[in-house]
Amino acid sequence: MNTITRDIKCAICAHEGKVDAVDVDRATPPSKIFNVLGKDSSGYLHFRCPSCGSDLVVDPYEVIGARQMVGQRASRVSRHRSRANVERYVHVTLTAVLLVIAAFLVHNFSGWWVYVLAGALVLPASLSFWIALFGSKK
Ligand SMILES: [Zn+2]
At a CB cut-off of 8 Å and minimum separation 6, what does 104 contact? Predict the structure, then answer.
């Protein structure tokens, strides 16, 4: 008895085929075989779409009882990417705020303490700018 389906569909390009396995029907053409890439840390199975080459993720809970698996776009990667973008945005905003404060002080006040204070603001700002440019590239 085989309750788990071998049929799979790519959600990105709608290509349909079968999951690669040792007992896969030899009559299945290679263009229809979705290679297993393995499991990730969440227990989700990854497949390679033979048509568009996308890394597909199948929710194990959707496989049970389903007549056909649907491989979704691997969203873990994009989630990591958007987090890095948020970090970059925060760094750029912080840099801008610190530079504006420093410019305001230098423009409106005079005295050695203004330059010390402005310098103390610009130093972390330039550090933050550096991180924004190079630090978040992963
Ligand atoms: Zn595809």
Answer: none
The CA 71 to ligand 1 mean position distance, Å, reads 9
Do residues 40 and 46 touch, judged by C-beta distance below 8 A?
A: yes
Residues with CB in 5 Å of ion ligand 1: 10, 12-13, 15, 49, 51-52, 54
Q: At 135, phi and psi to the nearest 5?
A: -70, -35
Domain boundaries, the chain: 7-73, 80-135
Confidence of residue 58 (pLDDT cuts 50, 70, 90): confident
Tokens of 138: 């992963």
- Residue 34's pLDDT is what? 93
User: How far is residue 138's CA from residue 131's CA, in Å, rounded to a whole number?
Assistant: 12
Query: What does the H/E/C string look like for 73-92?
Result: ECHHHHHHHHHHHHHHHHHH
Distance from C-alpha of 119 to C-alpha of 106, rounded to nearest angstrom: 10
Amino acid at 19: V
What pTM does this model have? 0.49
Q: What is the structure's pLDDT at 1?
A: 42
Report DSSP state, residue 12.
T
